[in-house]
Amino acid sequence: TDYAKVLAALREALERAPDTVVMVWYPQLQLLESTQLAQRLKASADAAAKKGWLHVRLTVAQADEKGFGMMGSGMFVANPPFTLHDELAACLPLLVERLGQF
Questions:
Q1: In a 10 Å sphere around its CB, with 0-12 CB exposed, 13-18 middle and 19+ buried, how is residue 43 labelled?
Q2: What is the pLDDT of residue 69?
Q3: What's the confidence (pLDDT) of residue 30?
Q4: How far apart, in Å, are the Cα atoms of 73 and each of 6, 24, 47, 77?
Q5: Distance of alpha carbon 73 from alpha carbon 21, whole angstroms
Q6: Taking the model in full, what pTM does it have?
Q7: Contact criterion met (CB below 8 Å) for 10 and 56
Q8: Name one GO biological process term (predicted).
Q9: Quick one: pLDDT at residue 22?
């Protein structure tokens, strides 16, 4: 699956260059693979990323009655730039306010 390919690509990138910044965007879906992706990325980054990792999610909607639909997106960053956390903390609330469909 694409999820397995993403994990393999992250592992390979960090094996080749443990200091490299690797960013993975993913959709927030009700699929089991989607909900487990962040945990699997964290496990891989814990083992190989020299500067840690950052995981953020932007949830702007709820799934429909049947559990379908994209609720938002997530971004996983291995070896994030040191300013990224603070910059995202400042702008994500504004994005939720503007894009939210609650």
A1: exposed
A2: 83
A3: 84
A4: 15, 11, 24, 13
A5: 19
A6: 0.87
A7: no
A8: rRNA base methylation
A9: 97
